[in-house]
# Entry
Amino acid sequence: MATSTAPLLSLRRITKVFGEGDATVHALRGVDLDIDAGEFVAIMGTSGSGKSTAMNILGCLDVPTFGQYLVEGISVEALPADVLAALRNDRFGFVFQGFNLLPRTSAVDNVELPLIYANVSGRMRNERARRALADVGLSGRDRAHPNQLSGGQQQRVAIARALVNEPEVLLADEPTGNLDTRTSAEIMALMTALNRDRGITIVMVTHDVDIASHARRLVTFRDGIIVSDQSRAAA
Amino acid sequence: MRLVTTTKLALTALMRAKLRSLLTTLGVVIGVAAVIIMQSMGAGATALVTGELSGMGSNMLMLVPGATQGMGGASLGAPLFTPDDVDAIRRECPAIKYVSIMNVRSVRVVAGDENRSTNVYGVSPVYFDIRQWYPAMGRILTDEDDRQGAEVCVIGETNRIELFGSVDPLGAELRVHEMVCRVIGVLEPKGASTFGQDQDDLVLMPASTYARRIMGDDRIGVMMLSAVAEDRIDEAKAQVESLLRQRRRVLAGEDDDFTVRDMRELIAIMGRITGVLTSLLAGVAAISLLVGGIGIMNIMLVSVTERTREIGIRLAVGARTRDILAQFLVEAIVLSLLGGLIGLIIGVAGSFAASRMLDLPLALPHQAAVLAVGVSVLVGVLFGVFPARKAARLRPIEALRFE
# Structure
């Protein structure tokens, strides 16, 4: 843990360019964003505003074209690939709009995945994965495969997978994008509880104002820059 | 990540995608099995031919009149050999063990109501030693028979069946030309020769009887000789050649007017023929291997879309490039080796079946088998690992979004 005053995550003058020549797209045009431990941040914006790109850079799934990204004050550009992998493994948990679960693989095996790469022993993996599934309200469905689960249940499995290695940050890219209103509300309640009770930092991309209202800080992107950044009382 | 975990991971992944695993394995199976069966058939045919030729006695020499012409033939018109030549060779060629006259003619033979055309041989009794032919019934010709010009004969299995059927042929009368001779023995069946000739379709009588009663002339068309040992064939050949040049008054500098042929030449010729056959089959096998390899490659490459997303997920949850590579390497090795093993089993079983059906000796091509398994595994591993390596080196988000 950082003892300095450095923010947990810090984007500095980040730009991201896709493509070349006429097809060039400037997804991010100089973004500065600091996120402290324990925050619940919603990133909003229309599609193409650059919010998902920023999210992917935050999670070390993508690298910026220019600019600096610091995790606890350490610049990640300089880090070797294996250290980035370790960072993704134990600092970040990801939740995607499309769930991204391994097909034909049971819930518990999906949840175990990060633990495999963290070198946790088999018995321990299974135990922790079951507990994580219980935490998201899916006890008893350990052996179910993704295609036997509803969308909300699949997203819970994904959240359990994101949480199983006890990360500091949960990064959620449109976590309710494929879910109906009621299921969305359940997922949001779960995420809010994780932030409130476990102190997990949450960064969530969404284009839905209702969903965003669960967060205490709202960052709005437009055309690759941040146009507003406001905090508010807890929902 | 430990090897055990990696292996478990790979095996689990294989079990999850059974059809894909099966198809990949199938490519290897077909390639390996095809190569083994093709090669074993080629090797079997070669073994059959060389085995049969050396079974004829590899220290055997054949002496025919006329100069050597190309691979087989000898020109006509040269004088035949005489009984004195036979005696001279016996006397003066220490590297020669046996000398036998072998005159032959196609003659119509009659036994009771049956008659057929067959090859009638006039041979010295040692002919049976040279050819290593043994009687199945009765006895073979003796020196006594030859000396007396006895009117007796030994017949082959085909003639026994065609002429006598279920009747006991021993002591029966067989009319050959104008002569009636008594059957004293039946040879063990030998089946068809390499060249497709029925080796049991013959009648053998003493050379003296043949000369007097069939030819009316004691000159000799062909002699079969055998060297005292296989490694003295060249010596034997040289002795016979120099003796005959002298006896037949061939002037120095002139070509021989006779030919001594040894079995090695024949084996060499047949070896060339079966060599062509084997290369042909090897070509077919190589194509099978290529097709199998392309099959493996295709299924590996096609599965990459799904696998790329899987790799993206694994990267996102913290897998390192080398973790991904290890998993895919183990997967590819397991599939390819499994395929190789099944291919090997099918190949060997197929070779057994082919040798049984085609009546060939079983000759398993060890080198070809190793090569086939090696190539298949190599192809499997290359095309299993390279796309995975490419995907594992993508940024996680690219792998995740791969369509």
Summary: Chain A touches chain B through 31 residues (CB under 8 Å). The first helix of chain A runs from residue 51 to 58.
